[in-house]
Every structure is written in structure tokens, then in C-alpha cells.
């Protein structure tokens, strides 16, 4: 089972402690959101989960495995960032297939896997197009497909909707939730947007200045804030 246990996690940059002694448990198949104002440490925590930055103390367990010091490519993790890092000279199909190259699959298997995942993100008819001919929302769906095609144990999403306009953002929000539920994929989603967090998440960890202020299901955070900070932050819609 792909649950995540974060214990006593601490991250410092030379003169700054971003967070210390973070403890969180994320359930297998849960849509878990890190919510909080800019600079509170959300992306840094996500990068620790991905192995893109080293932790100074504490451990990260994914299922049965301690992944704290594993290289990113050995963690079975998919990640999508705010900006779509697609290869401009590769088609949608080639972009998505790229992640599969390191796995020992034959051409037919690769085609099947890519076709299946493009259907899932509703991009089947765009397979032979190049990124520049796609909208922002479509590019993010390619990025999502690329991270899902390797069948990760956990999906990490860092503000994947922030660069998109409001209408597309809403649609992609629903698509991400539908896909996550269909795959029952353990997901950690980072956002500063309360409405996004409230509508998408099973549970939300509200952060401020490197601390988890409250960790609860959306309704509880909204109806029973445990602090002034929670009440104020959840009350202000963008
Ligand atoms: P968020 O994603 O919540 O906006 P970040 O995790 O990006 O916040 O940043 C948290 C804090 O850590 C900020 O004060 C930021 O300036 C600092 N920080 C992030 N990355 C680095 C880095 N590579 N070197 C030094 N400080 C950093
Ligand atoms: Mg960030």
C-alpha cells in the first residue's frame, strides 16, 4: 500500500530553517493538499518528497520503503510543476513515451501504455501534435500523462493550475480529481488557493511559516478552524 509517513522532517538552507519537525501521514489513495501562503515551505516539502532536495533531519517512508535518501528516479514518483516542462521538438506521444524509455518495454507495449494514458487525459486526438500547437491546459495534461505513464506510487503536483486561466483551471481541476480517483493514486497537491484546496482534497494541511497549523478534511478546516490563522486564511477566497 502506498501510504506516506513523514517523521520529524527538517530542512534548512544556509541561513534559514524552512521547516523543522514536520510530521504527517498520508493514506494510500488519498488526495492530500499542502495549502498556505507564498513562502511557507510547500514546494520545499514537496521537493523533499521527490528527492530533489536533501532533508537535514527526519525520514520519509513510502509504503514499506524508507525513501529518505533514495535518488529521485528510484522513488516511483510522478511530478507536475506549474510550468509545463515538455520537450518542444517531440510530439505529444514522444513526450509521454519519454518516461518509459528507462523501463524495459517493447514498442507495442509502449504504444499501448501511451494510448491508454492519453485517452485518460482526453488527449487521444492530439498524439501527433507538438507542444507549441497546444493550449496551456492541454500542455499540463501532457505533463500529467507523462508523469502517470510510468505508473508511479505517488503523484506530486506543485501548483499545476496556477498558470492557467480561470475557466481552464476549473475544468482541469475536475479532470485531475477524476483521474486521481480512478487510479486511486496517493497524491500530494500544493496550492496557495483555498478554493482549489477545498474543492479537490480529501484532507488539507494548512501551513504557515514552515509549520502545519491544522490538518483536517476540507469541511472541518472551514467550519471548525482551530486557530485565527486558519479562520482568516480559509475565509478569504481569491
Ligand atoms: P512556497 O512553495 O510555500 O511558496 P518555498 O518552499 O518555495 O515556499 O520556500 C520556502 C522558503 O524557503 C522561502 O523563504 C524561500 O525563500 C526559501 N527557499 C526555497 N528554496 C530555497 C533555496 N534553494 N535556497 C534558499 N532558500 C530557499
Ligand atoms: Mg511553491
From TrEMBL:
A biological process from GO: putrescine transport
Gene Ontology molecular function: any one: ATP binding
GO cellular component: ATP-binding cassette (ABC) transporter complex
EC number: 3.6.3.31
Claim: Hydrolase is one of the keywords in the record: yes
Keywords, in A-Z order: ATP-binding, Hydrolase, Nucleotide-binding, Transport
Superkingdom in the source lineage: Bacteria
Residue stretches spanning the membrane: none
ABC transporter domain boundaries: 4-234
Protein name: Spermidine/putrescine import ATP-binding protein PotA
Species, as recorded: Marinomonas spartinae
Whole-protein coverage range: 1 to 238 of 337
Amino acid at each position: 500500500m502506498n501510504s506516506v509517513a513523514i517523521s520529524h522532517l527538517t530542512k534548512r538552507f544556509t541561513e534559514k530553517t524552512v521547516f523543522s519537525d514536520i510530521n504527517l501521514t498520508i493514506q494510500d489513495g488519498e488526495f492530500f493538499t499542502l495549502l498556505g501562503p507564498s513562502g511557507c515551505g510547500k514546494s520545499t516539502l514537496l521537493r523533499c518528497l521527490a528527492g530533489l532536495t536533501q532533508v537535514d533531519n527526519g525520514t520519509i517512508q513510502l509504503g514499506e520503503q524508507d525513501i529518505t535518501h533514495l535518488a529521485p528516479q528510484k522513488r516511483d514518483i510522478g511530478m507536475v510543476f506549474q510550468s509545463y516542462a515538455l520537450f518542444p521538438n517531440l510530439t505529444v506521444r514522444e513526450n509521454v513515451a519519454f518516461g518509459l524509455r528507462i523501463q524495459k518495454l517493447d514498442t507495442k507495449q509502449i504504444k499501448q501504455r501511451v494510448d491508454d494514458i492519453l485517452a485518460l487525459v482526453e488527449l487521444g486526438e492530439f498524439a501527433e501534435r507538438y507542444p507549441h500547437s497546444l493550449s496551456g491546459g492541454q500542455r499540463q495534461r501532457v505533463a500529467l500523462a507523462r508523469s502517470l505513464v510510468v505508473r508511479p506510487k505517488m503523484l506530486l503536483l506543485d501548483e499545476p493550475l496556477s498558470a492557467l486561466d480561470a475557466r481552464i483551471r476549473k475544468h482541469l481541476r475536475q479532470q485531475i480529481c477524476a483521474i486521481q480517483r480512478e487510479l486511486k493514486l496517493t497524491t500530494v497537491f500544493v496550492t496557495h488557493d483555498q478554493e482549489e484546496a477545498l474543492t479537490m482534497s480529501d484532507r488539507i494541511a494548512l501551513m504557515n511559516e514552515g509549520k502545519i497549523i491544522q490538518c483536517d478534511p476540507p469541511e472541518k478546516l472551514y467550519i471548525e478552524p482551530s486557530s485565527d490563522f486558519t479562520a482568516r486564511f480559509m475565509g478569504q477566497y481569491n
